[in-house]
C-alpha cells in the first residue's frame, strides 16, 4: 500500500526526523512493516527502535496503536515527536481524565494517526470494541520481552496481548525489545504472531562503549579516579540498594561532585525533578538503583558504573547501553567482588520462583561471572551471549592491557585441601582464616588449628586468596552451597584440580593503581574544533530546555551541537545540512542558534 523507494524514504527521514541516514537494521525493519509482515526486532537499547515503528506509522494511510509499559516512555516519545512537529495521541494514567478523553477524540476523529496506550488500557473490552471500528493497520508492542515468563520483566498485562492477533487478524504486529534470548524470542512470536513472524537481531555491537571490570576491594579510590577523569561529563552509577545510593551520593558530594541519589523510595516529585536535572545538565552523576533508566533517553551519558554486580548480562547490557547513545566515546566500569556474587546467589535461592526458574537464574549469573572473570576480549564475551558475531575490540581493559595468567595450581590445591579437610561445611571467610593461620573463636572451637592446611597460605594476602577462590568458582571448580549457608564445596572439576589431573591458570591478583589510558577508539567522535562556541551553544540549549521544561536532548543532541560548532552554518540550507536538524527544528531554532554562531565565530 504505502510504497516509497529508498531515496524517498531518506528524504522523509530528513524532513520528519532531521536525520541523514538510517541506522543498522532500521530500513530493513521499516520495509518489512510497510510490506505488512509481522516482525520481532531485537535491538539493543539506544539502537533506534522507536524510529523503526514511528516511521511506518507516520507514513502509512492506516492508524497505529503503540503499546508501551511505562508512562515515562510514552511521555518521552510524545514529547520527542512533538519537537519534530508530529502530533500523536496518548492515553495513560499519568494524565487527567479530561486530557485522556481529548486525546482519544483526536485519534478517533483522525486528527492524529498514532495512539500510545498501556497494555491494560488497550485490552479493556470497551477500548477493543471502539478500536474495531477504526481501521487499525499496525499494532506495535514495545518492550515485548515483558510478555514472556522467560524474560526478565514478565508482566501479566502483557500476556493479555496474546489475543491481539485473533482480535485484529488483518493488522500487522511489530514487536520490539532489547533483551530476548532464544527462548524469549520464540515465546514472543508464538504469543503475538501465532508463530509466524520474521526475527531481526541487529546492532548489538556498540564499538563506542569501552568495557572495564575493576576489583571491588579498592572501590572508593578507584571510583574517585574514574570520576576525576570524567569531570564535565554526565554518568550513572548503579547500586544494589537504596541506602547505598544515598551514602554514595552524599560521599561524592563531599568530594566535590554533583551527584544525586535516585531510587523507588523517593517521592514521584523528587524523582521527576532528579530526572529533569539529569536530562538538562551537562555534567551530573546519577547514583541510582535500577529503578532509574527505563525511558531515560539522554544521548550524552559518558559513563555508566556498576558499583554492584548487575542481575544478569541482559540487565547489564541494557544498563550500560544508556551510555554513548550519541555515538561518541563512552566508558563502562563494573566493580566485581565475591560478596556480590554471594548476595545474588542468595537472592535467587531465597526467591519464590520455581526450581527451573532458579536454575535458569543461576545460569544467567554464571554467564555474568564469566564476563567478569574472562581474560580475553570482553566485547567478544558480551556479544557471543547475544549470538552476534564480533571482532576483538581493542578497546576493553583486557585488550588494552592483556592480563597475565599464571599457573596458580599450587595455591588452588591448598584451598581445595582446606575445604576438603574441614568437611565442606564452611564459607569463604573461615576457609581463608584457616589458610592464613588466624586465631578466631571458630577456629578454636572446631580445633581447626590441627588441620594439615592450617597456616599453609599465611604469606598470601586475604585479597589474593579471595580472588583465587572467585576464579575457582568462575571456573566451576568450587560451588557455593546456599542450602548450607554458603559452604564451599568441591565439584568434579575441583577434584580433578586437586588430584593434579589439570592445571589451574588464573590471574594473579594485585591491587593496581588505576591509570586512565587513552584507548584507540574505533569510531572517534567528531573532534571539537571550537570549544568556546560549543559551550555557548550548550548554554543556549539549556536555556531553551529550561523554558520549555524539556530535556536538553530533545532540542538538539550533543553530536548535533558539536557539528554546529565545527561547521558554523550561517544560512538556512547550511543549518539544515547538520545531522539532527529537520524542517521543524530549522523553523524553530535557526534564528537563535545562528545568532550565537555569528557572534562567537
Ligand atoms: P531504543 O528504543 O532502541 O532504545 P530509541 O528509539 O529511543 O532507542 O533511539 C535512541 C536514540 O537514537 C534517540 O535519541 C533517537 O533520536 C536516535 N536515533 C534513532 N534513529 C536515528 C538515526 N537514524 N540517526 C540518528 N539518530 C537516531
Ligand atoms: Mg525504546
Ligand atoms: Zn576487547
Task: Explain how this protein is built.
This protein has 601 residues and is an alpha/beta fold. Helices cover 46% and strands 13% of the residues. It is built from 28 helices and 17 strands. The longest helix has 19 residues, at 355-373. It starts with 5 loop residues before the first helix and ends with a helix. Bound molecules: adenosine-5'-diphosphate, magnesium ion and zinc ion. Adenosine-5'-diphosphate binds next to helix 3.
Describe the SSE topology:
Layout: H1 6-17, H2 26-34, E1 39-42, H3 49-59, E2 63-67, H4 71-83, E3 89-91, H5 97-108, E4 114-117, H6 119-122, H7 125-132, E5 136-141, H8 156-159, H9 164-167, E6 172-177, H10 182-193, E7 198-201, E8 209-215, H11 219-228, E9 234-238, H12 242-254, E10 259-262, H13 268-280, E11 285-288, E12 301-306, H14 313-320, E13 330-336, H15 338-350, H16 355-373, H17 378-385, H18 397-400, E14 406-407, H19 409-421, H20 428-435, H21 441-446, H22 462-474, E15 478-481, E16 487-490, H23 492-498, E17 505-506, H24 531-548, H25 552-555, H26 558-567, H27 572-576, H28 583-600
Bound molecules: adenosine-5'-diphosphate, magnesium ion (MG) and zinc ion.
Shape: globular
The whole-number mean of residue pLDDT values reads 89
Sheet/helix structural class: alpha/beta
- What ligands can be seen in this structure? adenosine-5'-diphosphate, magnesium ion, zinc ion
- Number of helices, where a helix is a run of at least 4 consecutive DSSP H or I residues: 28
Order of strands across the main sheet: 3-4-2-5-6-1-7
How far the N terminus sits from the C terminus, by CA atoms, comes to 49 Å
Instruction: Pick out the low-confidence regions.
Output: 511-522
Gyration radius, in Å: 27 Å
Strand content range? 5-15%
The percent of residues in helical segments reads 40-55%
The count of strands amounts to 17
Amino acid at each position: 500500500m504505502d510504497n516509497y523507494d529508498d531515496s524517498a524514504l531518506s528524504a522523509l527521514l530528513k524532513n520528519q526526523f532531521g536525520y541523514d541516514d538510517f541506522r543498522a537494521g532500521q530500513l530493513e525493519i521499516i520495509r518489512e512493516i510497510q510490506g505488512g509482515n509481522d516482525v520481532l526486532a531485537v535491538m539493543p537499547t539506544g539502537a533506534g527502535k522507536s524510529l523503526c515503528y514511528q516511521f511506518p506509522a507516520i507514513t502509512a494511510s492506516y492508524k497505529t496503536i503503540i503499546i508501551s509499559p511505562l508512562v515515562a516512555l510514552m511521555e518521552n516519545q510524545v514529547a520527542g515527536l512533538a519537537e519534530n512537529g508530529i502530533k500523536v495521541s496518548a492515553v495513560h494514567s499519568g494524565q487527567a481524565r479530561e486530557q485522556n478523553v481529548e486525546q482519544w477524540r483526536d485519534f478517533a476523529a483522525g486528527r492524529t494517526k498514532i495512539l500510545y496506550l498501556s497494555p491494560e488500557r488497550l485490552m479493556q473490552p470497551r477500548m477493543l470494541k471502539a478500536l474495531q471500528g477504526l481501521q487499525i493497520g499496525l499494532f506495535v508492542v514495545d518492550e515485548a520481552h515483558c510478555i514472556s515468563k522467560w524474560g526478565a520483566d514478565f508482566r501479566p498485562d502483557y500476556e493479555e496481548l496474546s489475543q491481539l492477533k485473533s482480535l485484529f487478524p488483518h493488522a500487522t504486529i511489530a514487536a520490539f525489545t532489547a533483551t530476548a534470548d532464544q527462548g524469549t524470542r520464540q515465546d514472543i512470536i508464538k504469543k503475538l504472531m501465532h508463530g509466524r513472524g520474521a526475527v531481526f537481531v541487529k546492532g548489538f555491537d556498540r564499538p563506542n562503549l569501552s568495557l572495564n571490570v575493576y576489583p571491588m576491594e579498592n572501590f572508593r579510590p578507584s571510583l574517585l579516579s574514574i570520576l576525576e577523569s570524567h569531570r564535565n561529563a554526565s554518568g550513572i552509577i548503579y547500586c544494589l540498594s537504596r541506602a547505598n545510593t544515598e551514602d554514595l551520593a552524599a560521599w561524592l558530594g563531599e568530594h566535590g561532585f554533583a551527584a544525586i541519589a535516585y531510587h523507588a523510595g523517593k517521592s514521584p516529585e523528587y524523582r521527576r525533578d532528579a530526572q529533569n536535572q539529569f536530562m538538562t545538565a551537562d555534567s551530573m552523576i546519577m547514583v541510582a538503583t535500577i529503578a532509574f533508566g527505563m525511558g531515560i533517553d539522554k544521548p550524552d551519558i559518558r559513563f555508566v558504573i556498576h558499583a554492584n554486580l548487575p542481575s544478569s548480562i541482559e540487565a547489564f547490557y541494557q544498563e550500560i547501553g544508556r551510555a554513548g547513545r550519541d555515538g561518541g566515546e563512552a566508558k563502562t566500569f563494573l566493580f566485581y567482588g565475591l560478596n556480590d556474587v554471594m548476595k545474588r546467589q542468595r537472592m535467587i535461592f531465597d526467591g519464590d520462583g520455581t526450581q527451573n526458574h532458579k536454575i535458569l537464574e543461576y545460569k544467567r549469573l554464571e554467564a555474568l561471572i564469566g564476563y567478569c572473570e574472562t581474560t580475553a576480549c570482553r566485547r567478544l564475551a558480551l556479544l557471543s551471549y547475544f549470538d552476534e558475531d564480533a571482532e576483538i575490540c581493542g578497546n576493553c581493559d583486557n585488550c588494552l592491557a592483556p592480563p597475565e595468567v599464571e599457573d596458580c595450581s599450587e595455591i588452588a590445591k591448598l584451598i581445595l585441601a582446606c575445604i576438603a579437610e574441614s568437611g565442606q561445611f564452611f564459607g569463604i571467610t573461615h576457609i581463608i582464616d584457616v589458610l592464613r593461620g588466624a586465631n578466631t573463636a571458630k577456629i578454636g572451637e572446631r580445633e581447626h588449628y590441627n588441620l594439615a592446611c592450617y597456616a599453609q597460605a599465611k604469606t598470601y594476602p586475604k585479597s589474593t586468596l579471595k580472588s583465587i577462590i572467585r576464579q575457582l568458582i568462575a571456573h566451576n571448580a568450587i560451588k557455593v552451597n546456599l542450602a548450607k549457608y554458603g559452604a564451599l564445596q568441591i565439584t568434579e572439576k575441583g577434584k580433578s584440580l586437586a588430584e593434579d589431573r589439570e592445571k589451574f591458570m588464573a590471574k594473579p591478583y594485585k591491587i593496581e593503581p588505576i591509570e586512565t589510558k587513552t584507548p584507540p577508539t574505533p569510531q572517534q567522535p567528531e573532534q571539537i574544533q571550537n570549544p568556546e562556541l560549543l559551550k555557548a551553544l550548550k548554554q543556549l540549549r539549556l536555556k531553551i530546555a529550561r523554558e520549555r521544561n524539556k530535556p536538553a536532548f530533545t532540542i538538539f543532541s550533543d553530536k548535533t551541537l558539536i557539528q554546529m560548532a565545527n561547521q558554523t552554518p550561517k544560512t538556512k540550507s547550511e543549518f539544515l545540512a547538520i545531522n539532527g536538524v529537520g524542517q521543524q527544528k530549522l523553523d524553530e531554532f535557526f534564528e537563535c542558534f545562528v545568532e550565537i554562531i555569528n557572534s562567537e565565530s
